[in-house]
Amino acid sequence: MGKTVLVVDDSASVRQVVSIALKGAGYDVLVGTDGKDALQKLDGRRIHLIISDVNMPNMDGITFVTEAKKLPAYKFTPIIMLTTESQEDKKRQAQAAGAKAWVTKPFQPEQMLAAVSKLIAP
């Protein structure tokens, strides 16, 4: 059984790059187009890791992480923030909300996969 990763980003090209890298590494991938859309995907199914953009329409990444962590099934799901933001206060907000790691765009797929493999329990 593959490990499932939920990728949340309003950019189709970012979703595609991340999805291709993850699938190539053997992960199953679900995608959300923004925080609101992604929350609907958190319907009780097993998700091993979430990768979320920070700046998105409808619901930004930090709000999404906060909401996801309120759901008992996803309280302990590791979350990686993927963003162009490198500001410390945004990082602190994301960590306070429950994010475990931070990958800055533009990123190398290998760099992202290394973060993923660290956080997904074997």
UniProtKB/TrEMBL annotation:
Question: Could you state one GO biological process linked to this protein?
Answer: phosphorelay signal transduction system
User: Taking every annotated instance into account, which residue ranges of this chain make up the domain Response regulatory?
Assistant: 4-120
Keyword Protein biosynthesis applies: no
Residues where 4-aspartylphosphate occurs? 53
Which Pfam families does the UniProt record give?
Response_reg (PF00072)
| Top-rank taxon | Bacteria
- What does the UniProt keyword field contain? Phosphoprotein
PANTHER family assigned to the protein according to its UniProt record, in alphabetical order: CHEMOTAXIS TWO-COMPONENT RESPONSE REGULATOR, STRESS RESPONSE REGULATOR PROTEIN 1
Task: Kindly provide the name given to this protein in its UniProt entry.
Answer: Two-component system chemotaxis response regulator CheY
Naturally occurring in which organism (per UniProt)? Catenuloplanes atrovinosus
